[in-house]
Structure formats: structure tokens, C-alpha cells
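ok trying this again, last paste got cut off
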Amino acid sequence: MIYLELFCTFFMIGAFTFGGGYAMLPMIQSEVAARWGDKISEQAIVDFVAVSESTPGPFAVNMATYVGTEMGGLFGAFCSTMGVVLPSFIIILIVAKCYEKFRDSSVVKGCMTGLKPAVVGMIAGAVLNVAMTVFFPAGLSLGVLSGAAFYVSLGLFAVMLVLALKKVHPIVIVCLSALAGIIAGYLGIWS
């Protein structure tokens, strides 16, 4: 039954991924490819990463809702969204109840210290995975260097990175990226 599979898959993702939505991205990509890769392409997941970034709400919830909708309609969206949210809800209730008591514990401090670099590594892995799909959609080859889409994507990335480093508001960056993408699509650069 697809609804139970959606709930269990996203419950597992929510329960075993620390660091928020970006840290969940590699696991979401892996699970979706393994379970529903014949129905949801890797390109569709990358496209929805962009949509999830430009819509309100937590990234992981948006991704779970998207996959759930694609696989099981409205009730599928509900099941996958509840699956990804419920572990965090349960864990935060337990942590809130116990944290004050164990905050100064060396075990708790060590656990938090160990989790931080792992989360950064998972986020970096997700960034590289998405970057490969965006810049090299047909795989890593020199042929991609002959198309305008690669250079337009690279230019947009560079401009948006500079704007982000200059602390331009993220909403402005998202709007400018969308506008540039619309213009490039209208001009046929990505067709």
C-alpha cells in the first residue's frame, strides 16, 4: 500500500537525518530513486529542490509533500508529510523534557560536537549531488562545455553566490534567479 510506504519511508528519513532539510536531501534522493525512480526522475527531484527553496515552509516538508503528491495524490502528500514531521516532533518533546537535566553531560556535549561535522558533510554531499545534476545533466563529459546552458547556469551560480556573500536578502536572490531562469527559458537556452 503506497500510503503506508510513503509514511514509513519519510518517517525513517525524519528519524535518522540530523541537520534539517539539506541534510535530508541525500537520503530523500536515495530513497525516492530506490523506491519510485521509475515514476519520479532525478531531474524532477532537482527541479523540486529549486521549487522547495522558493516556497514558504521547511524544505524537508516541501520535499515530502511533493513526493507524496506525485505518488499518492492528496492523501499521499498527507502521509509523507506526517511521516517526515512526526519523528522531529517526538524527539523534540523528549529532548525538551531531558535536556535541562543532561545539558552539562560530557556525553551529550560529545554527541553534539560529533554531529556537527557529520551534518556539514551531508549538506556538502547534497550540494555536490545537486550541482552535478544542474551543471552536468547528461553526465560528466566534455560535451556539456559546448552548450550555452552550462555557461548560463555557471554565470547565474556565480552572480547569486556573490549576492549571497554580499548579504543580499535571500528573497531578492530567489526572485532574481527565477527571473533569470524565465528569461533563459524564454530564449530557449535550456531547451
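PB: full thing came through this time. Residues 121 and 139 are 23 Å apart (CA to CA).
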